[in-house]
Design brief:
52% of the residues lie in helices and 11% in strands. By secondary structure, the chain is an alpha/beta fold. A seven-stranded mixed sheet has the order 3-2-1-4-5-6-7, with helices on both faces. Helix 14 (261-270) runs antiparallel to helix 15 (274-284). It is globular and about 60 Å long.
């Protein structure tokens, strides 16, 4: 059976659910953006046991102290759009015998709802489990005060290096000392290497290698997954990607509609070289959609592709496009 794995936020739905949920809090958008920058720094520095996308763990203390419930996540999710062409693409892939999976950093409350709208069953969705109510029970008055203090510091410390050191102290020591426990052990976000683990598990369950899988992603949480598939000889498609994801793909697709992914899937199913197809289609598709062949791409070409994708990323994802 042919296997394809999609990231959810970006390729399939434009909403950044965690960003929108955090924005329910007063100044929550600013909190999320600061933590997202902190996340990028930690991920790119290769901090042990930290993966891109762990922003979804970082924001949890603030969701708890501001009374955000799981039903709020579901409600925000219910307003999410679907990327043009995504529902039809998945239906056609399934009709053609493809096994379609979603590998997403998204909280389960969002991923399962969008998956249902797209016709992808829960057992085909790898995502972040979040038990807000259980975590809320662990929060003491001391913990609430600790979180309130760091929230004030996020808005009062102007020097980003100083702020990030303050955040280190909060997450690695202060919050634990309140008895809350290890946040990162309790909220295991499916991003970075954890997406790789999920893809390898999915591939193994079908008796195929990562090099026989198609992967579709767009951001810093996807680059390890895309790189694994590309380096294993598979088809790694970046859709409206950012500077973190584009260099790790061998096929780049930009546009307002994701339907063209089917061309690569059909080629792969026929036994043709789907990556080489990108070389041919690059001559035909130069606007919307735009196709680029990235094998052997130099830094100048990568920069040009990122610039082109940035325009469509903003067009399709709106404010979420600025997040890593």
């Amino acid at each position: 059976m042919n296997v394809i794995c999609f990231d959810l936020e970006g390729p399939l739905s434009p909403q950044d659910n965690a960003y929108e949920v955090t924005s329910l809090i007063t100044n929550g958008d600013a909190i999320f953006e600061a933590l997202s920058r902190y996340d990028d720094v930690l991920a790119l520095a290769g901090r042990e046991n930290y993966e891109p996308g762990d922003t979804l763990a970082l924001i949890v203390p603030f969701l708890l102290t501001h009374g955000i419930r799981e039903r709020d996540i579901t409600e925000v999710s219910s307003q999410a759009l679907i990327v043009s062409g995504a529902k039809d693409l998945i239906a056609r892939l399934k009709d053609s015998g493809w096994d379609v999976h979603i590998i997403s950093t998204s909280y389960e409350q969002h991923a399962h709802q969008i998956g249902a709208a797209l016709g992808v069953d829960r057992d085909h969705i790898s995502c972040t489990r979040l038990d807000l109510e259980g975590l809320r029970e662990q929060l003491t008055e001391e913990g609430v005060a600790c979180i309130r203090d760091i929230e004030e510091d996020i808005f009062s410390i102007d020097d980003e290096k100083e702020l990030f050191q303050r955040l280190d102290d909060f997450y690695l020591k202060e919050l634990k000392d309140t008895g809350f426990g290890d946040l990162f052990a309790q909220v295991q976000v499916v991003g970075g290497k954890r997406k790789v683990v999920a893809l390898e598990r999915i591939a193994a369950s079908h008796g195929v290698t990562p090099g026989e899988v198609i992967a579709v992603g767009d951001s810093i949480t996807d680059f390890a997954m895309l790189g694994l598939v590309r380096d294993s000889g598979g088809v790694a498609i970046v859709f409206n990607g950012n500077e973190y994801a584009v260099p790790y793909a061998n096929v780049a697709l930009a546009g307002t509609d994701i339907g063209l992914v089917r061309e690569f899937a059909d080629a792969h199913a026929r036994g043709d070289d789907a990556v080489e197809l990108a070389r041919a289609l690059a001559q035909e598709y130069r606007d919307d959609p735009r196709v680029d062949y990235l094998v052997g791409a130099d830094s100048e070409k990568i920069e040009a592709v990122v610039a082109a994708h940035k325009r469509f990323r903003k067009l399709v994802r709106g404010e979420a496009a600025k997040l890593g």
